[in-house]
Amino acid sequence: MPKKVDHEARRQEIVDALWRIAGARGLDGVSLRDVAAEADISLGRLQHYFRTKDDMLTFACRRVSHLAEERIRRHLEGLAEAPTPYTILRTCLTGMLPLDDNSRTGALIGVAHFSRAVHDERLSAEAREGIPNLAAFFADQLRMAATHGDLTPGRDPATEAELLISLVDGLGTYTLLGVHSPERAVDLLDAYLEGLFEKTESDGGKATEEAREPVAG
Question: Which of 63, 119, 122, 128 reaches 20 to 30 Å from 146, CA-CA?
């Protein structure tokens, strides 16, 4: 009886090879043949799973997002107390930053995908899909904070949600370029959040020291 092939595992092996290349030398100019060589498989076998480089990068980006979501979820579930909107937002935002080798490599894969998506409507449409959902989630957390009196008066949750996404994207880019250290990026993010949330003695909008640990890969 023919051996059953785990196609998902095979795709992951290929993405792991892509991950190693991205971490070692970046993805500029890297071809499917390069990835096949790193994965120690034939080009034909690789193309059985990913017909084009764009297909491979799209799958890899989805994998990066999934791993980030899992890290964030585990971090929040491991807290001693139920997380506040502040803690949830800060955990998500630091989880989007390239703070260590793993998250940096994931960010480099995202950059490679972004550079190709700019000139490809199909790729750019897919890349745009998740942003409104993320902004809506952030806005809901900010509205909850406002209901509890923890949001600075006069701040619009929908606008602030989009600003937070833009802020962390910019900080991530500067961190990749070495303009900011990972620590400086987190400090700048915290400075913005401190102005966005009211300071309260009851810690209603603030996080404990345990919750303030950045989420890294």
Answer: 128
The domains located in the chain, with CATH, are: 1-51 (1.10.10.60), 64-217 (1.10.357.10)
Phi, psi for residue 197 in degrees, rounded to 5: -105, 140
Is the pTM higher than 0.90? The answer reads no
- List, for residues 3-27, the tens digit of each pLDDT value: 556 788 899 999 999 999 998 988 8
pLDDT 10s digits, 77-122: 999 999 999 999 999 999 999 999 999 999 999 998 888 888 888 8
- Cα(62)–Cα(195) distance, integer angstroms: 32
Q: How would you label 107-127 residue by residue, b for 16+ Cβ within 10 Å and e otherwise?
A: bbbbbbbeebbeeeeebeebb
CB 97 within 8 A of CB 91: no
Task: Note the pLDDT tens digit of each residue in 60-82.
Answer: 998 999 999 999 999 999 999 99
